[in-house]
Amino acid sequence: MITDTLTLQDIISASLQNSMTYAEYRELVIKLVEEKSTTGTDKSEDLVNYTQLNDSRMRRWDKTAKVSDAMNIKIANFDKKITWLVISESWCGDAAHIMPIINKVAELNGNIDYRVVLRDENEALMDQFLTNGGKSIPKLIMLDSETNAVLDTFGPRPTVATNMVQTYKVEHGMLTPEFKEDLQRWYNKDKGQSTIEDLVSLLK
């Protein structure tokens, strides 16, 4: 008899085998932009355009995102071998702001192995890590690198942005295009610092 825990372990192991590095993910997105395509099962014009926009966003954050000296010390002091397995798609706006920041943090500590999988190609994994019943991405699953045991999760947004979204939904019932633009402006102003704080809190 297969236990639930073993089933999750099997799903995680299969997903890790199907994963790529962040550098490989960036190469994939760049290639898709050239081909006017996108990851995922929906190849609509809107999602193709979002992929193009997100490539530009990620390129900017890859170049400009900074980790403070105080946070750098906390990250460098972490001494357990972990894997950050992130579920994403190239069209996801939140992912474009968050994934480069995850990379900046992971690069500061050799104990952190950053791997990426695509949501629509890893449904079994996504179904294990829903947010309020939805397949929200990006979703970071923090694993013990030796056992693949799940230690924690992060996403689909940093805590501050999550609170903004929840407050707006309570007041308006749904996220409007205007709010989504406000959220993008918040990401640009925050410069990844809220994401860094949340990621560092995972390392405690």
Automatic annotation (TrEMBL):
Top-rank taxon: Bacteria
Q: Please name the GO terms that the record assigns under molecular function.
A: isomerase activity
Which keywords appear in this protein's UniProt record, sorted alphabetically?
Isomerase
| This protein's name | Thiol-disulfide isomerase or thioredoxin
Q: Name the source organism.
A: Winogradskyella thalassocola
